[in-house]
Amino acid sequence: MVAPNPWKWPVTVLRALTTGGRAINTDTQQDPGPADLSGLAALRSVLRLRGFRRLWLVLAAASFGDWIGLLATALFASAQFENTAAQGAAFGGTIAVRLLPALLLGPIAGVFADRFDRRYTMVTVDLLRFVIYGSIPLAPVFGATPTQTAAWATFATLIGETITLIWIPAKEAAVPNLIPKSQIEVSNQLTLITTYGITPILAALSLAALSAGLQQAGVTLPDWAQPVQIALYINAFSRLATAIVVFFGIREIGGKSPEREKAAEQSMTRQFLEGWKFIGTTPLVRGLVLGIFGAFAAGGVVIGEARTFAYSLGAGEAAFSLLFGFIFLGLALGIGLGPMIVKDLSRRRWFGMSIVLASGSVMFLGLAFHLSIALFGALMVGAGAGMAFLAGTTMLYGEIEDAIRGRVFAVVQIGVRTVLLLAITLAGILVGLGSSRRIEFGAFHIDISSTRVLLLVAGAIGIWVGIGSFRQMDDKKGVPVFADLLGSLRGRPLSPPEEFTRSGVFVVFEGGEGAGKSTQVTRLAEALKAEGRDVVVTREPGATDIGSRIRGLVLDRDKTEAPSARAEALLYAADRAHHVATVVRPALARGAVVISDRYVDSSLAYQGAGRTLPVQEVSWLSAWATGGLKPDLVVLLDVDPGVGLNRVDSRGEGADRLESESRAFHERVRYAFLDLAASDPKRYLVLDASRPLDEIAEAVRERLSGVLEPSA
Ligand SMILES: Nc1ncnc2c1ncn2[C@@H]1O[C@H](COP(=O)(O)OP(=O)(O)O)[C@@H](O)[C@H]1O
Ligand SMILES: Cc1cn([C@H]2C[C@H](O)[C@@H](COP(=O)(O)OP(=O)(O)O)O2)c(=O)[nH]c1=O
């Protein structure tokens, strides 16, 4: 095998940059199949997609332009004034203006993205933005007064931002069509980190370097080419560049699927209303939208009061920057490492869990009394938010139909901006209102500041929203959440129970050798049959034709060599898989009472505790074999191994392979059974197997009457 060349993709990207992306079609577009690639391999494979590579460049350029533009416009507007109040107003004004247009145009932006050719939409918007942003630094050149210039900067930004709202859903809706589903997550990691991690930093650094460099060099620049203006030109030209790349380089974005053609025959109002209906009635989308809003509201509260909070820690301005830095670091870690950590965890579950993590950390912040603790909280807020963001966008990309995607994305972006703006403002006002209260209890006192109360409340609401959206879109209902999470972290996710309508009742007898299982199974079956019930008596191993051959392999001492511990575990699991599929499930589906002599717990006790294989692994194996089928009741007949083995001996049939194991082995098995019963008492009936037969039978009947419906 040829060793992969780690330099291939940076080289490809460089070549793409220098050739305008035309000479880079070295590989064909292909889906490498299921996402079994990890880390760098996955990254390389997504970068091999030409369409994505170009789109990534577009996004990087656009976002670099955006960030440098945002900073420069604000600086530019405030630089027009001498007095600080006017500077502040101008600075704040242009930033607020960036959020406002969402409310004006947002609602119909999605219809645009779904109705019209997305390539043309993106190119048109970009050309307009090139002109509009380019006009800002030129205003003074044409003789505008400072006030007029600041007003124009604000107005032009407003227009530019407004039409950006059309660009974003068009872009978002187009991306998934360029990337195979299995690679969407990796491509999102890359673009999110580029947009929110690399480019803002690069933009701020470039702007600073530009100003400092020019100052040092001592060159005097003409009015129209001051550093801030240069930054604004860069913003404008980044738009021209993206327009060109999208138009010539990513033709795949253009055109429309037949579904979209058809939908476009409706009126725009109709399409608009249909978008809302879809969002309101699809649980996955409802959960996603709800969760995203909740996360951003909690984030907004943190931003809105970060300054006051930093001061309350007694650490001032530096702490404020640090807190922010840690949130960003957390975001990057969550997005960059999240998928590697949670591995195959259901992305729907991951989304809800991440929101709970972020919100829980907001509450934790509310209780933090030292900067170091608060920094940890901030890191976790960021990590949770980053993971939720990644999981959320990946689902939006992967699970929503092309024809409606633009509208869903439009609602998300409008909602996010609005919620964020509201939360920041509201938090600012609330913090301003309440000051810290000291509550005295005799000699003690506690300081309760409104900042902390607000953090606790925001966190609690976030947790509530996270759980709500988890419930809305859970795709593994019935699989315990923490066990699932732990399993995934270990790399062995639990599979959701196979669905089937189960009207019967599944009873299992477990216990050591000679405990009396076979005897009790027969007794119970006879009693139930006498009531006129449909009863199926079965056992493991060996209830089926295949099963009886497996039984021979594992238990016959004379005929075969002993299987190794893992092979033995697999053989029992194979017997079980076949048994469940061909005997147990069909009987339960038709409503019978199924009574089995041994089931999953025997494997946990004998192969797990007895053979000392990791019990978790054995459990996972059985869960997989049975598709998650659990019994309704497990009767554990507990007996001292000595007593049980004596009973078996007296049958005089000779010991099988397991019966002839050591005393210590059987002791371990016994206690493993008792532990299992103790961990889930509702499902177990533990009986002392040295009691008389009839008493045991009676106790079983009694317990079962609570599980069985009265016989007809
Ligand atoms: N409660 C009991 N008290 C005394 N002997 C019992 C009791 N239950 C079963 N036995 C006897 O013990 C032996 C083993 O019983 P069996 O039902 O085959 O156990 P298992 O299926 O658990 O190996 C049989 O000879 C049976 O008659
Ligand atoms: C079902 C099962 C059985 N066993 C063992 C326990 C028993 O020693 C043996 C067969 O059990 P069983 O049929 O109960 O034998 P007997 O009727 O002689 O008591 O298989 C496992 O080790 N793992 C398993 O998963």
TrEMBL record:
CDD domains: MFS_MefA_like, TMPK. HAMAP family: Thymidylate_kinase. Gene3D superfamilies: MFS general substrate transporter like domains, P-loop containing nucleotide triphosphate hydrolases. It comes from the Bacteria. It catalyses: dTMP + ATP = dTDP + ADP. The chain crosses the membrane at residues 55-77, 89-113, 125-144, 150-170, 190-210, 230-250, 287-306, 318-338, 350-369, 375-397, 409-433, 453-470. The keyword Membrane applies. GO terms for biological process: dTDP biosynthetic process; dTTP biosynthetic process; dUDP biosynthetic process. Keywords: ATP-binding, Kinase, Membrane, Nucleotide biosynthesis, Nucleotide-binding, Transferase, Transmembrane, Transmembrane helix. Signal peptide: none annotated. Residues 509-699 form the Thymidylate kinase-like domain. InterPro entries: MFS_trans_sf, P-loop_NTPase, Thymidylate_kin-like_dom, Thymidylate_kin_CS, Thymidylate_kinase. It is an enzyme of class 2 (transferase). Its EC number is 2.7.4.9. Phosphorylation of dTMP to form dTDP in both de novo and salvage pathways of dTTP synthesis. GO terms for cellular component: cytosol. This is Thymidylate kinase. Belongs to the thymidylate kinase family. GO terms for molecular function: ATP binding; dTMP kinase activity. It comes from Actinoplanes philippinensis. ATP binds at G511, G512, E513, G514, A515, G516, K517, S518.
